[in-house]
């Protein structure tokens, strides 16, 4: 009898524990805020694969999450956006940025008195990816500026102020002499350049968004901290087709570097942003599009606007395979697959340089292409447009 009771209790408790665990995990995947279009049909808003929120009143400023429609779990603030329209991108852009301070990309041993000594900066705790912003209280503007200041200081200890993971820290480093010059034992970088794709331009605020992911250093994989940057005209000159295990690439060159399209002001997890001008308006798709937030997006057919040759931006067919729950901004909001035969023939799917290509569904801008899966060049990720609009300062 006692054994039967134990089995009965276990049978009742096991599903409850599993349900509690699933609930706990999914709560942490929920967004801190939901964006909806004012006046739209928001009666059923899907915020995860497990829960549905019902909002019976358009005057509410939050949605109540209920497990199985009964048990209150969490309230999520709602931000209603009225008639937001932006110009879609899809055009190829040149990108030039200068870093704030200098980015540490390598350590260099020092030869002193015919002996090889480990990098003094490394032994003092300076790591790859750190951004050096000051030496002895003086700002560092470039790699050359760092070298000049080190030579001027000469022997002894110096104090380095640097940024690591967004936090300002300080360390003392003993300079070592090599070939009559005092050195830190570091390789640093202060700028980078490349091409990408514009996602949107908002004529009202003059703000643009591009890429859908941060610009990172190839050696350290750390995002650049920007001091200044520019968007420039660029032209695609060739395409390396993507294959399994080898991502493809758009190769381009800058056109008329004196004619700036905009100033890059931010490099975030969701892309690059700044102030532009009307030259960013797509010459082919030159009408503003309404913006759709995640509650309006659905799995299924969609399109992207992208530029892969001299013929300019074109619409290509894709499929949204899966919408992913996200509790914070990031470039992996949805899984997409290229289905357009012409695009597959020319590029193999998604290639480097296409990042930022706007994703269109039901004639609304819903996101941007961000990454390709290396072993499946026709499959990749996209980002929800609301993340980019938020970082651009267009929505709060």
TrEMBL record:
GO terms assigned for molecular function: hydrolase activity
EC number(s) on file: 3.4.21.116
Enzyme class: hydrolase
Residue ranges occupied by any Peptidase S55 domain in the UniProt entry: 165-396
Keyword vocabulary terms for this entry: Hydrolase, Membrane, Transmembrane, Transmembrane helix
Record flagged with keyword Transit peptide: no
Top-rank lineage group of the source organism: Bacteria
Keyword Acyltransferase appears in the UniProt entry: no
Transmembrane segments: 7-27
Coiled-coil portions: none
NCBIfam families: spore_IV_B
Record-given protein name: SpoIVB peptidase
């Amino acid at each position: 009898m006692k054994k039967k009771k134990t089995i009965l209790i276990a049978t009742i408790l096991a599903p409850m524990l599993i349900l509690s665990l699933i609930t706990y995990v999914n709560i942490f995947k929920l967004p801190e805020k939901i964006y909806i279009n004012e006046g739209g049909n928001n009666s059923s808003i899907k915020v995860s694969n497990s829960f549905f929120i019902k909002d019976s009143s358009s005057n509410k400023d939050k949605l109540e999450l209920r497990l199985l429609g009964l048990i209150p779990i969490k309230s999520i603030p709602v931000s209603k956006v009225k008639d937001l329209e932006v110009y879609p991108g899809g055009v190829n852009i040149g990108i030039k940025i200068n870093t704030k301070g200098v980015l540490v990309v390598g350590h260099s041993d020092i030869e002193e008195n015919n002996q090889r000594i480990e990098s003094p900066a490394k032994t003092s705790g300076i790591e790859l990816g750190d951004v050096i912003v000051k030496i002895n209280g003086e700002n560092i503007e470039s790699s050359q500026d760092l070298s000049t200041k080190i030579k001027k200081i000469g022997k002894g200890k110096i104090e380095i102020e640097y940024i690591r993971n967004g936090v300002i820290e300080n360390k003392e480093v003993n300079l070592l002499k090599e070939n009559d010059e005092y050195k830190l034992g570091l390789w640093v970088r202060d700028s980078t350049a490349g091409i990408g794709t514009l996602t949107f331009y908002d004529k009202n605020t003059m703000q643009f968004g591009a890429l859908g992911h941060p610009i990172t250093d190839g050696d350290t994989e750390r995002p650049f901290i920007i001091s200044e940057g520019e968007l420039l005209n660029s032209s695609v000159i060739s395409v390396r087709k993507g294959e399994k295990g080898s991502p493809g690439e758009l190769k381009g060159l800058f056109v008329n570097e004196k004619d700036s399209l905009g100033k890059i002001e931010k490099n975030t997890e969701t892309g690059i942003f700044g102030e532009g001008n009307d030259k960013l308006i797509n010459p082919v798709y030159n009408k503003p599009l309404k913006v759709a937030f995640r509650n309006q997006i659905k799995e299924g057919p969609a399109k992207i606007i992208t530029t892969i040759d001299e013929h300019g931006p074109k619409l290509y067919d894709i499929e949204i395979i899966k919408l992913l729950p996200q509790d914070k901004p990031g470039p992996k909001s949805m899984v997409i697959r290229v289905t357009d035969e012409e695009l597959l023939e020319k590029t193999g799917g998604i290639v480097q340089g296409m990042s930022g290509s706007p994703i269109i569904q039901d004639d609304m801008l819903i996101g941007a292409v961000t990454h390709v899966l290396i072993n499946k060049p026709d499959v990749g990720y996209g980002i929800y447009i609301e993340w980019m609009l938020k970082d651009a300062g267009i929505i709060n």
